[in-house]
Write a structure and sequence with these properties.
Layout: H1 4-22, H2 28-35, H3 39-52, H4 59-67, H5 71-78, H6 84-97
C-alpha cells in the first residue's frame, strides 16, 4: 500500500518545480486571477501547516521553502510590474470571489 502523504508530498514538490522552474514566467497576479491562489498563498499555507504541527516558521522561511530562494531574489529575477489590465482583472476576480 502506498503512503498517501508521500504521494501528496511528491505532487506538491512537482507543483513547486512547475511553478518555479518550468513556469517562472507566470506572474503571481495571473495565478490569482485564474486560480484564486499564488505562490505567496502556498507559502502562507505551508507556514500555517508548519505551525499547526508545532514547527514555527517565519514568513521569510516559508517563502524560501516555496520559491526555492529568498523572496527578494525571486522578485528581482522574475517578477514584473503588474499592468493596468492585470490589476483590473485581479479586481474583477476578487469581486467574484469576495
Amino acid at each position: 500500500m502506498t503512503d498517501t502523504t508521500a504521494l501528496e508530498a511528491a505532487a506538491f514538490r512537482r507543483l513547486l518545480k512547475h511553478l518555479n522552474q518550468d513556469r517562472s514566467d507566470v506572474q503571481n497576479i495571473d495565478l490569482m486571477i485564474l486560480a484564486g491562489f499564488c505562490r505567496n498563498c502556498l507559502a502562507d499555507w505551508y507556514r500555517e501547516a508548519a505551525e499547526a504541527a508545532g514547527q514555527p516558521l517565519s514568513k521569510d522561511q516559508a517563502h524560501e521553502a516555496i520559491y526555492g530562494m529568498p523572496f527578494a531574489q525571486w522578485k528581482a529575477q522574475f517578477q514584473k510590474e503588474a499592468s493596468a489590465k492585470q490589476l483590473a482583472a485581479f479586481q474583477a476576480a476578487q469581486a467574484r470571489h469576495g
